[in-house]
Amino acid sequence: MATVNPNLPLSYVKPTIAVAIDTQAPTSGNDAEASTLLLWGEQLAAGIAPLNAPQALTSVTDAVNFYGQRSPLVRDLRAALSQNGVNGAVQIYGVGVSEPSGGTAGTAQIVVSIPGGSNPTAAGGATVTLGGVEQASVSWTTTDTATTIGAALATALNACLYTPFGTWTNASGTVTATFNIKGARMEDYPLRFAYTAPSNGVYFGPGTITIATNATGAGSISIVSGATTITAALAGGETPTAAAVLVAAAVNGGDYPLDAGTPTVGAIPLYFAPGRDYRRAQAFVTTSTGVTVTLLNGSITSGTGNGSTSSTYAGTLGAGFPTITTAISNVRAIGSFGKWVCPWFDATTAGSLFSAISTDGNGGPNQNKGQTLTLCATGTYAAASALPAATSPAMNVNQANNNNGMRGAVCLCLDAAQPGSEVAARVAGLRAASDPFTNYDGLALTGTSDVPLLLPAAAAIGAFTDATQNTAITNGLTPLAVVGGSLVIIFGRTTLGTTAADLWDWSWIDQADAHRRDFRAQAAAAFAGAALIAPGTTPSSRKDVDPAALVGFEKAMLRRWEAQGTYDGADANAGLCTAAINPSQRSRADCTYPESPKVPLHTIGVVAQRALPPIA
Fold first, then answer.
1. How confident is the model at residue 400 (pLDDT cuts 50, 70, 90)?
2. Is 153 helix (H, G, I), strand (E, B) or coil?
3. Is the dihedral of CA 300, 305, 307, 308 positive or negative?
4. Which ranges of 335-376 would DSSP assign to H, the alpha helix?
5. β-pairing verdict for 277-278 and 267-272
6. Which of 7, 143, 161, 370 could cross-link to 363 by cystine, CB 3.0-4.6 Å?
7. In this structure, what are the phi and psi dihedrals at residue 405, rounded to the nearest 5 degrees?
8. pLDDT at res. 14
9. Is the pTM of this model over 0.90?
10. Where would I find the H helices in 450-505?
């Protein structure tokens, strides 16, 4: 007997062909949806597109006009187009939404320091790379001061075309700007400094960390930037001056995003480590009581014995996520957009997008959409691995015939040189440009001369160990790591939590979606105007179709997909095809075909056994 599509109720009598993909069975919309990319992001006031409505993007100029030149949507589009194979092969759409209501716009701060005096000891220069793409350069001579260098740096920063800031201003060498949208997503925006000539006494950094009050009891002071945590242990009883020496030694004791200057009376100047990607620093005290730490104008934080007090931040922390309910409804009503990119690494917001994708992925008459959601974390493995289980519905769980666990992709690139959304745009773009069966192992992410893809710093590359990558794959993450001088996909992993490893691959659901699209199209053409006749009735015309004819059609589809390179075992699985007339609705046939996509080869285990050649 054929299995009944549970998403197609008997009460739905309008003629249709609906296919549910059931990945929990035993193992014995849009024609172009697979090659469609949907970018989400905040729209600036200068944008002319209607809010919450998808717009076709044929060029960067379109995105600039629709969303504003410094919109994150423009940057994500530029990143997607920089991926090899995307331009011209992928249909790209964007959805502009309002910034978070009641959210907070974060600030960025670069402090110019000349700790040895008022002027540099010799001429020099430096370049800051913003978000891994645009650069601002500044140079100095022995007559410059922190104020004049800061003024020149502000001018260079304001000349950047796509960076997400308002106007940079300089006050006595402290150069500041506010992000041009509210929200937490801009916290994932790195800065990388490099000296184009010897610094000669000039340093750039986020500011100073100040320690006050003697420490009571053992504990620690930690500074965090991106995926990196720097910890200085306290034995208890340290004065602020002694604690500052310990913190400075810890900062300078490794290859971190920050360097420390000479501490004075509990104050430690922090500098951007050359070649490292810096994200807003935070600091906190664990266990030790009494002692407090303050970063710049951040709030003071102290130990409480449990390490759970709020951190102090370097500058104003961006906060909030946009409301996207209306946008989701509009997108769902219009059609199917194969590969969605979520730029907000937040369980609630990502869950809202994923809920729509999951619901529309079932076998209902108005669903049958083959869509996926891609995100990229640049912070810690712990934060990345916590997201799939925290969304609603959970991205790591499959519901029968919804396949939601297979429709998620959470990438991890520790301390990436770019914001995670721009990395995710490349990944989803590559997937949209690829065939349904693709082995993604080792495929490289790319950039162009004007939108480069900088590699993570050497220390970040080393920190993403083989063991961590393996654990990430096991737990539903897609590691992005540097291999042979390129940033590559280690394993294109769905977020599905299952021991059935064949369901881990992106290509499984991509092939199944391709089969569903093809089955619906071919069946609609083959059975247009047909009559459904009972088994044993002699057909009077080619339009008479009985269950055996439907089974024959299913078997032909398996062979067709095998010939196309997206099916494994058409002849072996042919006996599993079934069809029957529904006893409660005589005009309905219920069919089942075995779904067996090709599985990528990931691992080859070899044993070299000792042997001797024969002697004559």
1. low
2. helix
3. negative
4. 347-360
5. unpaired
6. 7
7. -65, -25
8. 54
9. yes
10. 458-463, 466-474
Q: Residue 247 has which token pair?
A: 């913190």
Q: Give residue 459's identity as a one-letter amino acid code.
A: A
CB 403 within 8 A of CB 509: yes
CB-based contacts of 292: which residues, under 8 Å, 6+ apart?
A: 211, 212, 213, 285, 300, 301, 302
Q: pLDDT tens, 540-571?
A: 998 999 999 999 999 999 999 999 999 999 99
Looking at residue 12, its pLDDT comes to 62
**Cα 386–Cα 392–Cα 394 angle in degrees, nearest 5:** 55
- Which residue is associated with the tokens 């022995």? 142
Phi, psi of 390 (to 5 degrees): -90, -15
Report the pLDDT value the prediction gives residue 23, as an integer from 0 to 100. Answer: 52
Length of the chain, in residues: 616
**Could you give the dihedral angle defined by the CA atoms of residues 558, 559, 563 and 564, in that order, rounded to the nearest 10 degrees?**
-30
Tell which residue, 324, 370, 326, has the closest CA to residue 350: 324
Q: Which of 79, 111, 104 is nearest to 92 (CA)?
A: 79
Q: What is the pLDDT of residues 423-461, one digit of tens each?
A: 999 999 999 999 999 999 999 999 999 999 999 999 999
Say how far apart CA 537 and CA 284 lie, in whole Å.
79
CA 500 to chain centre: 24
